[in-house]
Design brief:
6 helices; 14 strands; 7-stranded mixed beta sheet; 303 residues; single chain; alpha+beta; 2 domains
Length: 303
């Protein structure tokens, strides 16, 4: 997608910025409607929902979910489809609907948009699609496909502005070891290493198996400083046992969290024992220096 500047207009019909929002753009026949689930009974009678369109339902199935669940659908009459989901799907807390203000979208157009959005979500890996099946790409004429691809581009520009990044392939916000992943500082007093608490299952499957760690909050000022990550293994181990340089840091999910991708497989260290550290010392992430990490014998040597 081109990074050309653009403007969108947001109309709030009931005066509540967290309620129903109508989104349009100059020189675009499309129209977006964003609303929370609880507003559906009062909103469903709007004329726009009697048209053909594509929609995205967004929510979390469980409190601990790291990524949102999304359902992507289409309909000749959007109202009927969303009403069915309102009765039968409990996970979603908000919906984003796209239709055409001049009613120019037909069944083939919206089925292609559904197909393209689902494919994009699967490629981005920033959500959990709730769709049971992946639709086949509908056949469109060359001209119709060009027009529908243009409609999709408009949708993809609008979605992040209404708080949904599930269709964006993550871009690194920091690449500390891009040029020299094996470099080691001689000494440093700057906090450049993040220690993460890791449950046994996550440590084996993700830290060691996938060579990454995700869904952690990192303060904005620390993002460009982090060069290493180490794993503190929670009970019954209760010790820091592995570390590795960080190749890149990417956004992860919709909640302001990040994914750290390793420059190389994690290596054993220490171990650095919990020792006499205060109870609760590793309930969340902690920062230290690489120099301290290399010399520490117990947790209190790190912080």
């Amino acid at each position: 997608m081109a990074n050309d500047p653009f403007t969108i207009r947001i109309f709030v019909p009931d005066g509540d910025p967290e309620g129903v929002r109508i989104i349009d753009r100059m020189n675009w026949t499309g129209l977006g409607i964003v609303f929370p689930r609880e507003k559906w009974p009062a909103t469903k009678h709007r004329l726009e929902f009697s048209r053909a369109g594509v929609y995205i339902l967004v929510g979390y199935r469980a409190e601990g979910d790291e990524l949102p669940t999304v359902y992507i659908g289409e309909g000749d009459v959007i109202r009927n489809r969303i009403e069915s989901h309102f009765q039968n799907k409990d996970f979603w807390s908000r919906a984003i609907v796209f239709t055409a203000s001049n009613n120019s979208l037909n069944k083939a157009h919206v089925k292609w948009l559904e197909y393209a959005l689902l494919k994009r979500a699967e490629e981005a890996k920033q959500s959990k699609p709730d769709n049971d099946t992946t639709p086949q790409e509908p056949g469109l004429s060359e001209a119709e496909r060009s027009d529908t691809e243009g409609f999709l581009r408009e949708i993809l520009q609008i979605l992040p502005l209404v708080g949904l990044r599930a269709f964006e392939v993550p871009k690194a916000v920091a690449e500390p070891h891009k040029e020299a992943p094996a470099a080691r500082p001689a000494s440093s007093t700057e906090l450049n290493t993040v220690i993460v608490p890791a449950q046994p299952d996550g440590f084996e499957k993700v830290f060691l198996g996938q060579h990454c760690w995700h869904a952690i909050r990192i303060s904005g000022g620390m993002l460009p400083k982090i060069k290493y990550i180490a794993a503190y293994r929670t009970q019954p181990e209760m010790k820091v046992t592995h570390y590795t340089p960080v190749a890149s840091i990417e956004p992860y999910g919709e909640e302001g969290k990040y994914k750290l991708i390793f420059a190389e497989p994690a290596k054993p260290i220490g171990p650095i024992l919990f020792g006499d550290a205060p109870q609760g010392s590793m309930q969340g992430i902690r920062y230290t220096t690489f120099e301290k990490l290399m010399k520490a014998k117990k947790l209190t040597d790190l912080f």
